């Protein structure tokens, strides 16, 4: 589970795979071990299964090694009137900035084709 530390009090993590959406005591044990905390140091944690959220219907993709490198060129080009945009196709992969930047890139391309 990759973790991003925001400060000394909060941690944000994303877990992938079939066992990633299993918010059990096992998750608490992993957090304690990963962050090298004692039992009393972890006050609370929240696990959210994005695919179960009614207005989201999914989560971040988890690509196998080499998959994105192999398919990225095809996803960065348009296929007739179908265009793909997203963080994983941008020069800032995996970030919100990348998603916005790539969305702008694709929107600019579409607008140029329409005018």
TrEMBL record:
Pfam families: Amino_oxidase (PF01593). InterPro entries: Amino_oxidase, FAD/NAD-bd_sf. Residues 38-110 form the Amine oxidase domain. GO terms for molecular function: oxidoreductase activity. Signal peptide: none annotated. It comes from the Bacteria. This is Flavin-dependent amine oxidoreductase. It comes from Haloactinospora alba.
């Amino acid at each position: 589970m990759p973790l991003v530390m925001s400060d000394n009090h909060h941690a944000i993590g994303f877990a992938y795979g079939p066992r990633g959406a299993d918010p059990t005591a096992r998750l608490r044990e992993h957090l304690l071990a990963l962050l090298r905390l004692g039992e009393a140091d972890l006050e609370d944690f929240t696990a959210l299964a994005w695919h179960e959220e009614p207005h989201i219907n999914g989560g971040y993709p988890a690509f196998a090694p080499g998959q994105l490198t192999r398919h990225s060129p095809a996803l960065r080009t348009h296929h007739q009137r179908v265009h793909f945009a997203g963080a994983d196709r941008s020069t800032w992969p995996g970030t919100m900035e990348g998603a916005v930047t790539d969305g702008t890139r694709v929107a600019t391309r579409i607008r140029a084709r329409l005018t």
